UniProtKB/TrEMBL annotation:
<dbReference type="InterPro" id="IPR052352">
    <property type="entry name" value="Sugar_Degrad_Dehydratases"/>
</dbReference>
<dbReference type="GO" id="GO:0016836">
    <property type="term" value="F:hydro-lyase activity"/>
</dbReference>
<dbReference type="InterPro" id="IPR020558">
    <property type="entry name" value="DiOHA_6PGluconate_deHydtase_CS"/>
</dbReference>
<dbReference type="InterPro" id="IPR000581">
    <property type="entry name" value="ILV_EDD_N"/>
</dbReference>
<protein>
    <submittedName>
        <fullName>Dihydroxy-acid dehydratase</fullName>
    </submittedName>
</protein>
<dbReference type="InterPro" id="IPR056740">
    <property type="entry name" value="ILV_EDD_C"/>
</dbReference>
<dbReference type="InterPro" id="IPR037237">
    <property type="entry name" value="IlvD/EDD_N"/>
</dbReference>
<feature type="domain" description="Dihydroxy-acid/6-phosphogluconate dehydratase C-terminal">
    <location>
        <begin position="369"/>
        <end position="566"/>
    </location>
</feature>
<comment type="similarity">
    <text>Belongs to the IlvD/Edd family.</text>
</comment>
<keyword id="KW-0456">Lyase</keyword>
<dbReference type="Pfam" id="PF24877">
    <property type="entry name" value="ILV_EDD_C"/>
</dbReference>
<dbReference type="InterPro" id="IPR042096">
    <property type="entry name" value="Dihydro-acid_dehy_C"/>
</dbReference>
<dbReference type="GO" id="GO:0046872">
    <property type="term" value="F:metal ion binding"/>
</dbReference>
<keyword id="KW-0408">Iron</keyword>
<dbReference type="GO" id="GO:0051536">
    <property type="term" value="F:iron-sulfur cluster binding"/>
</dbReference>
<keyword id="KW-0479">Metal-binding</keyword>
<feature type="domain" description="Dihydroxy-acid/6-phosphogluconate dehydratase N-terminal">
    <location>
        <begin position="48"/>
        <end position="358"/>
    </location>
</feature>
Amino acid sequence: MFNKDSLTRREVSQLRSQRWYAPETIRAFAHRQRTQQMGFAREEFMGKPVIGIINTWSDMSACHSHLRERAEAVKRGVWAAGGFPVELPALSMGEVMVKPTTMLYRNFLAMETEELLRQHPIDGVVLLGGCDKSTPALLMGALSMDIPTIFCPAGPMTTGKWHGQITGAGTHTKKFWDQLRLGSITPHDWIELEGAMTRSIGTCNTMGTASTMTSIADAMGFTLPGASSIPAADCRHPQMAAQCGHTIVDMVWYDHKPSRWLTKENFLNGIVAYMALGGSTNAAIHLIAMANRASIQLTLEDMENIARRVPVLANLFPSGRALMDDFFFAGGLMAQLKKVGRFLHRNARGVTNHTVEEWIKDADCYDDDIIRDLDNPIIPLSQGCALAVLRGNLCPDGAVMKSSAASPQLRHHTGPALVFDTHQELSDRIDDPELDVTKDTIIILRNAGPVGAPGMPEWGNLPIPKKLLQQGVTDMVRISDARMSGTHYGTCILHVAPESAVGGPLALVQTGDLIELNIDAGTLNMQVDEHELARRRSALKVTHKVFGRSWAALYQQHVTQANEGCDFDFLQSGSDIPEPPIF
Ligand code: FES
């Protein structure tokens, strides 16, 4: 599987772990002694690549509930290839359980990954994760350490079914919730759905953030080619995990670390996949953060340029009709990449040191309706794309939306703002029958960004007021500095930057102001004159909660804005940290 061409094999003495294990010192004695204490004989670890397995398993992360078993499969591969596997537990961020939002902790896991690798005698690492933020977090940490790294995606869950209908995680939850609010399904149906929608191990089975990020990691070359499409419950999934273990040992011997193969072209390939899959807007933040960790310049404009040329081709929820099981059986990511081959940098390489051209040349598509050709997109470019970038006096540093999920009649829309300062206020008032709102109103939520919330929760799919739902309104223009779940849809403008909490123009909007959205022109403006804006700016007061201690305080002090990746300013790039001294 690993291509050794043009690479030079290292000597044992060049392994990083040898600094811990090889010297004839009292410290190295203690390292060998403590390893033997766990039952490993000297010959089982001495002179072998030490492979860290960063495992984000926990009982609070349903999507990762199988990762203890997968870690065993990885170990099997490592042992078979002559390495020494060690499992390192790390923060588990189950998207649904973690409050207020996993995004608050993405940088935490990234830091933990980097520091776990730095502080231990690790030569190469297999990263086990997949639920939304885990993928970028694990990769950000490993990129900062720059040691041989392979990502083993958790794999999507099995298709959900209820009363004969296919149900996708996330996407359908929102749909059924709206139906429950309207009385078109019963409370009994709602309880039944709990057990029917997410019925196996694995990550969400739609093209939500999890599948978007694992597919991007795959297209960039961080996984075994095609690994992201393998369902978690399929027997080929543990086989893939074992193969990751085998491959990482070769990667260590040939020092195949990210800085040796990862270029901007890999990121651009990841973006091509992102657009073709109709992926989550969250990826726009994570890609920039990951690129910064590798000291690669990547901007919203890079994504915009590709989004304008690559339509949504994968017929997957929430853009289309199928789920990740169907995508796998239709040929998976490699088949989809082959169909967008003309946009790919095909000489780029990944963890196996094979080129993209080599990955995709034998890929077959078995269902042209699920994995579509460029001339038969699921959503034509004229109707939108996976990522539209907007600019204007409301979002000078950009805002994003999934324009393919917007309603055609709202693509160019002017309406009066209805502003909510907090999510609590929105929740309290949105279903009030007296709320002054029409289908033309533009609903705005602020103080929901990286600093304001803090952690930029997925609140951006702002609810439609109940009284409008009852009138048959299914979409409205909604604006926030929050993010939106990749499983959701609607005319939702997200990631407004700078956010309101740091004084961005969103903080200046007042209920009743006219806002103009023009998706085709890429603009978002409030029709308020400069003089009035200056007056409001001078009267601006801090309205978000400022934390004085805890992780939230550190986060608020150092997080960057959405267009910069929401990483911590002191972690973004450079690898000027020395190896730890061993005394
Ligand atoms: Fe974990 Fe969706 S909740 S992937």
